[in-house]
Amino acid sequence: MKNLSVISISIIASTIMLYSSLSAESFFVSDIPIQEGGRIKPLDSFARNQSLAFYGKRKIKHENLSAIDWLLNLFTHPEKGLDQKVFNLRNPEVVNALGLTWTNNFHKYSYNELFPGIEKQLPLIREIFEKKEVDRDVFESQLVEIYQNVMKFREIVSSLSCLLPLFSVYDSDLATNLHVEPGQLISYAHVMSHRGSLFETSQGIITKPESEWSVSEKEIALLLYNLQQTSSDDFAKALKIIPPSKNDSSGLWLSPWELFDGRLIEPHQDKIIKSLESYLLARFENNIENQNIALSSYKTGLISHVGKKVDFSNLSKERWLNEADLFTNSLVFYLLGFILLGISWMIKPVVFKNVAFCSIIIGFCLHTLGIYLRMVIMSRPPISTLYETVIFVGVVIVLISLIIEYIRKDGLGIFIGSISGSLLHYVGFGYAADGDTLEMLVAVLNSNFWLATHVTTIILGYGTSLMAGLIGHIYLIEKIRVPKDSVRLKSIYNNMFGVTLIALFFTLFGTILGGIWADQSWGRFWGWDPKENGALLIVLWQLMMVHMRLSGLAKPDKFALGMVLNNIVVIMAWFGVNLLSIGLHSYGFASGIAVNLILFTLFEIVTGFGTYYWAKSKNKVSIRSNN
Prior knowledge:
mainly alpha, two-stranded antiparallel sheet, 8 strands, 67% helix
């Protein structure tokens, strides 16, 4: 056991040391700050979100490309990007409507394949946009989604075309006016920064017929034509990577193309543009050394302007968090713990149970580190969105499970922790698939004090309530399996009753704190909001079960059934009320979960009552045999 503890501590320590090694001095292209969704995030997060929206995953798996490499390839080789199969179409009806062929195994298509079909369907798409979202069927919703993705993709592809080395000038006089060597590749941005001299040079060809142009004048005309063609990309404003002027009170960052709309380019913006231009040229030429020099120059120019307004260490942390994928690795250790526990029931119970316990500890530490980093990055308590409640409830249940296992040492805590941690990770992954999980808060939620008290407390109540329900399941199963083992049954019942009291405390206290917050935010303590009613129902149900048990109206097996059914109340209060899309708590709206809620409710009812009556029948048989 000591060796296993050393191994566990070593793995945890190495992870923490790797995280601690992050330095504000190190800077990668994936750390470039971009403003999206109301916050500053690393370019790596932006790339992953776009890959998720188009491809359905946070990396281009069939080409083994990371999201950031895929995005940079789009910037430097846009013509290849347009032929890359990155659009995931899930509906054969949509594929057929776009004039494409549905394949059984690979439903990925390129921009160039999709765009002709999108153009033909524009009248239908306009009709769909006139409908409310709730009135659209699956086909219409998915057709609109692919249209929006195609338009967004085209915008991203063109976002840095103004910085790409697309033109070359061979005329020596023109090259001198543009401050380049003859034959050197230059960008739209470079030409526009010397447009005064170009304008003067081009005046002579305006009044001449084309047949009288000299070789030099023909090159000027070609350059002007290329500039005009490139300027058609000026709609591409998705990449907000240029900080605004210090006099700009809006705080809105700019895209490179926005700097060429006639406004005065400030010195810091010019330096950033030149650094990005140098980086793209170096990447175009596959020159690693020049890429690093350009990135260093970029960071220097950015820091000189934004100062401490951008936390570069947080950008590095978020990029590291993306790469480490702590929650997936945590899930692996939870599943490993469950498998090892199963093996311990067959051979060498002590050894495999200890290894399983260490596996759950490692999973818990990775889980906790992931939540901690999210808190640091967003500078707020761990719970503010529906996704964050899921991952937080998971870590709470696993923590309590570890405590139970440390006390009992019989595998019960390992079983509860591995099952609960894994299931809640899977639920969390479902919500993470919607996009960026580090979202900015709506104004009414943007209060660190109340997020740290009411929200955390009520979510602790959800977690401990679900754990009490899971122990209720285990009690009923054990009542069937070993009906005569009164010592074991009483021990499990005591754990269940204790966890229920803890759950009652947190849900009651959290509901009261919520009322105080509501009074301060909205001027009333209670408003019969669906979320408030859900919290109240949990409290009333648990109070009812505790009173029934203490008064003798409910024996342990009936109390266990009551806690199993309490899971339904908790899940409806947690997720179900979001289906209503009404009330002051509608910020947690989630669509598409109705079927899952129905299935969960049916599962709890069937397994709860099924095991309860089975346990009762086993108990009757046991009594008869004793008589």
